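If your schedule permits, I should be very grateful for your opinion on a structural question. I would ask you to consider whether the tokens describe a fold that such a sequence might reasonably adopt. Thank you for your consideration; the sequence and its tokens are set out here.
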Amino acid sequence: MSDPRWLDDLESRAWRGYMAMTQLLETEVNRGLKQDADLSLSDYRVLVPLSEAEGHRLRMQDLAAEAHFEKSRLSHQIRRMESRGLVRREECPTDARGAFAIITPEGLKAIRMAAPLHVARVRRILIDSLTRDQLNCLADIATGVVDRLGTPADAAARTPGN
């Protein structure tokens, strides 16, 4: 095995800054959602695509891709949200292995209450602190990395032994 290609000072600063920034942003957003709407960031990541989907329903595999969750994580998340009345599961009539996640009226009420407060917080803690050029760079960086990594299912497929 060859020696690792260590990060230089700029690369290390970028990587460590990214890790600190994402942890702090996620903590602040999660805290805000909990305080404002009694939702977690994971709840929000599930409710948004369901609230935007036709019929407020998505196949579980499509929801996993939208929320960037592995299937097992989504299954646990949906179970927790079902117990709180935010979503429900429904078997797919044409595919015995498939299921739909459906947002409930209570889930719609929760996301409609949370969304304006969430957007205001995201704007305050990130968006408004960046210039338009910086936002373009951030969007380009995020798109490039997400395109390279793909979905959690893609990442799992790259893991040796899968």
User: Anything to note?
Assistant: The mean pLDDT is 92. Helices lie at 9-37, 41-52, 60-67, 71-83, 105-125, 132-149, 152-158. The longest strand covers residues 95-103. The domain at 27-154 is CATH 1.10.10.10 (Arc Repressor Mutant, subunit A).
